[in-house]
UniProtKB/TrEMBL annotation:
This is Phage shock protein B. It comes from Shewanella vaxholmensis. The lineage of its organism: Bacteria, Pseudomonadati, Pseudomonadota, Gammaproteobacteria, Alteromonadales. The chain crosses the membrane at residues 6-24. The keyword Transmembrane helix applies. Keywords: Membrane, Transmembrane, Transmembrane helix. The keyword Membrane applies.
Length: 82
C-alpha cells in the first residue's frame, strides 16, 4: 500500500514538473517574440500596411485579367502571330 502511494506521489510530481517546464518554455518563447509589449502596435501597423498592399495588388490583377480577356487583345495576338 505504501509503495503504491509513493509511486502515485512520484507520478503526480513528474506530471506537475513537466507541466511547469512546458509553461515556462511557452513563457520564454512569448517573451522572446515580444507578445504583450509595445511591439503589438508595430505589428498591427504592419498588418494594416500589408492589407492595403494586398488590396492594391488585387486591383492590379483584376485590371490585367480584364485586359487579357478582352476580345481586342485576342485579336491583336492572332494578328501578331500571322
Amino acid at each position: 500500500m505504501e509503495n503504491e502511494f509513493v509511486l502515485m506521489v512520484i507520478m503526480v510530481s513528474f506530471i506537475i514538473g513537466l507541466s511547469a517546464t512546458e509553461m515556462f518554455k511557452h513563457y520564454l518563447k512569448a517573451r522572446q517574440l515580444g507578445v504583450g509589449t509595445a511591439d503589438d502596435r508595430h505589428l498591427e501597423d504592419k498588418v494594416t500596411q500589408l492589407s492595403l498592399q494586398n488590396q492594391a495588388l488585387i486591383e492590379r490583377v483584376q485590371v490585367l485579367e480584364k485586359i487579357v480577356t478582352e476580345p481586342e487583345y485576342e485579336l491583336k495576338q492572332q494578328i501578331n502571330q500571322l
